[in-house]
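Exercise: predict the fold of this chain.
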Amino acid sequence: MLRTLIVPLLVLFAALAGGSRVAGAAVPETPRFRIIGAAQGLPSTDFFGIARDRDGYVWVATGDGLARYDGLEMRVWRHEPGNPASLPGNNVQFVHIDDRDRVWVATESGGLSVLDTDRRGFRHIRKADHPQMGSDDVFTIASRGDDVWFGNYQGGLHHLAPDGRITRYAHDEADPTSLPSDIVMSLAFGPDGTLWIGTWAGMAKLADGRLQRVPMPIDETPRVYSATVVGDELWVGTLQGVFVRAGDGSWSQPDWAPMFEHPNVLMQLARDDDGAFWLGSQKGLWRVPPGGIPVPVPLGGPGIVKTVSALLRTDDGALWVPVAGAGLGYLRSDWRSVAQFSRANGVHEGDFYRAIAPAHASGVWLGR
């Protein structure tokens, strides 16, 4: 019993000391994720998207269905043979919640599916019924008001109007005002309503019904994997590194941009309240303190560093991150007030301590 209480006592001491200092000693940032996994009904640890609805449910696109977490357990939607209101397939590539609280889902080669607010069954939008669609392989979804936009692999960009009409924007080699590529990987709306479109041949934007290619300061064709709007800036993750477009149209790169060239391309980005950034890349999760450089964040999984292709930071400051081989990681908004020291992170030699007391000058004394 004693041993089970010792490490929590150390964590509690850090919290009581104010979170940022322990008896005069600085406490390092140590984000510790709570794992929601198979015990809560998570169907798979392959994640491709995370979203949150108005009621606070967290929706997860996984390799074995669409999962919804209510704080205690998961409910899972899968393909059911013979049920047209079920998912077309179980490999869910993206999930998006629109302004009407509808859940939009993309499954591998299954087109676009939507779960209305009653959550009873899916309605499907497929190329077989909508020949104007470029393909059924949807990679990304965005919405504004009642208008839904989705990008396809080799299918271009599509606008789904409230009346159900679909307009396609495709690449045309002979037209320099067309989409740069039919492989659309990322969509993001700016505060002014501009739709930013990340493709495998660079960036484009759609404003006032007009599509324009957006040149980037790079000699070779930029293959874009992510486009994220942060305030009036656009952060773009490419094969060639990270680029930032300011509100005046100028481009720049953070000093650490080369760290996120291939094979560590930036896939997801979220800004924290203190100005720090969370980065999901092809080599895990990173945190960039204000004015600092990216630092890898241990997620507590089985030691496998995999692509973090989904991030969700909620309005209350919490962070949801996939943890390879373990489950869905949850980081509380007050994580900075608690620090955990262990042999694993190299802070001290043992794992069990039977006594703790503040030192006279600074730091603490630990008794084993």
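Check your answer against the key: Helices lie at 2-16.
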